[in-house]
Amino acid sequence: MRWNTETDMLTFQQTYIPVTDTTTKREILRHTSKMFDPLGLLSRLRYVLRLYCNKFGKFDWDTPLPANIQKRWKNLATDLTTLSTTQYRRCYFPGADEKIRQADDHSHTTLHVFVDASQSSYGAAAYLSNGQNTSLIMAKNRVAPLKKLTLPRLELMAAVIGARLLSHIKKTLKHTNFYLWSDSQIVLHWLETAKTLPRFVRNRVEEIQKLTGDRKWKYCPTNFNPADLLTRGITAIQFGSYQKLLRVTAYVMRFIQNSKSSKKRLEPLSPNELLQAEKLWLIDCQSSTYPAEISNMRSSKSRSQLVKQLRLFLDNDGGIRCGGRIHNAPLVESSKFPYLLPSKHKLTRLIVLHYHQKILHAGVNSTITYIRQKFWIPAIRQCVKTILRKCVICRKVVGQAYSPPDPPPFPRYRVQDTVPFTVTGVDFTGALYVRTKDGIETKAYICLFTCASTRAVHLELVPDLTEDSFLQAFRRFSSRKSLPHVMISDNASTFMAASNHITRLFESRHVHDTLSSHGTTWKFIPKRAPWYGGWWERLIGLTKTALKKTLGRTYVTYDSLQTVITEIEAVMNDRPLTYVSSGNRPEPEPLTPAHLLYGRRITTLPYHDTVDETDLSLSLGKQQNITQRARVQIKIIEDFRKRWRHDYLTALREQHRTSGKNKQSISVGDVVQVHDDIPRAQWKLAVVEQLVHGRDGLVRSAKIRTDSGVTNRPIVKLFPLEVTEL
Fold this sequence. Notes:
By secondary structure, the chain is of the alpha+beta class. 41% of the residues lie in helices and 17% in strands. The strands form 6 sheets. Strands 13, 14, 15, 16, 17 and 18 form a 6-stranded mixed beta sheet that branches. It is elongated and about 120 Å long. Mean pLDDT is 79; it is low at 99-103 and 492-499.
């Protein structure tokens, strides 16, 4: 810290922190320990540095730090370099009346101490006010202990810091009214209650009361607590927009001029004032980023590589401009000789966002064209792309969803050799229109049951989507095929007309209780993710295609439709599961689901040779022959199951997709848009509350909270509004 006796200003020593390719723990601590700030004027920046230093405590002193930590250090080094431009008045109230100062009247002066805490730090700030002006006197903050404490206890520790700060300031400022403020009502209750408190709380309450006496603590809302900056941290340059930065700077410059002149300027800011503020920031940015180039241009030495490449020169105000060969072009001076800006500076980011918003959030090319009318940024395309990827407004309109990871291995029930229909998927088709005997039009639905391993299907025609109709279809299915151990279905149907009916049916307590009494468990796939049930959605499509080709535009009765559906079921169970050879060599018959169910195809005759009816009746009448035929049937089915294991399962390897990009950026707390079948501007916003990890450790779905409650969605239906990793 430095005191300029001529201007009576407190400043900080100008330091240049070199940023090398490899940064170590020793080098970072060497630079951060040089910061001398006894008054805590830079507590907000020191807080960020302390939290940052805690992250690499496990590394050795001279070991190169990871790339993400080094990238963060480069940004902090830029802030530390700009500290030399930060100034504070040593006099708290320079414009106060001279008579009041001579009389040493402190009756109208009040001292306010604000305390605040967060999960990462706590602190206090003291402000002095004379009724017209307010000035920061001193601030202190601490990083939260490694041992996790509750937020009320951290707020209490902040109150201890505030009490100590008040006790220290009272020794110098006499006859001043003191006030203490906190935004924690729990702490205020602890300070006033007469009940016995826990030892941790009681010890700190006693210290606070000893230091502050009978002074009453007051409540301050969090939004109006200035000590909140101590616990959140702030960088040397932190503004929401480029225009706000220029206007604030212009008002500060006008205030300085009004303080020196008897004629006060109170009119709105002029374009010239905004231009001077812009030049001030540009020169400050260039001087902190290109000190070597500025020194080279001011000397008589040979020009450096960057100076020669861009033909750099200093204008009359000291700004760095780029030359070229368009001196005689009919352009303004700033277009012919643009200002040089570093691609990774925070001021550059504000400028890019400003021009991007000015041209109504146009694309990268339009933004670059507009920026080059006044500025020259090396590697501008990469710079603009990186910044525009973080534009929330653009991401709400054209942002992409989270990228899905590689498909996981098949679930165990898909590749396990079990009894047919042990694990069964169930789904409904859309409404089919049939006519009654009286010619009245009515609806009917197809309920599809499919086996997860054998891929066999069972089709049932139901008149409606009520619980009773489904349970009747389930009873017919389990009586003809097998009682399933696990039933899997959609969480919601994709058919808009039947969506609510199917949802209520699948969530019915009566249906679940009935199935549970038979030992059947019901499971759901994530909402809005029909590809999770692709192994039955594919068969739904085959059923509908076969139905369209069979009936066409025929208007049939309910009984006729039921007959057609049964025939379609037989044909689908005779579809080949393995490769069908087209060669002349005799090969085994292609494996079908019917082979695994019955030991033969059901759309062909069971006997290839003609058998005499008399011999057939005699042979079937003996118990020994019947038992022998049963054993033969079991052996035939077992042979087909061996072919299923050797031919079908190995053939599943042929269909797989791998991208090799399994790096995922979704995390808890992300704000996302939820995909829906409506215009994108009407999509709901949600917050990711929980990630659902697969057995391979990758995330494919998540639980989210919307304004209507908690639900789940696949990550490919979630569109992030914030970029966490670039």
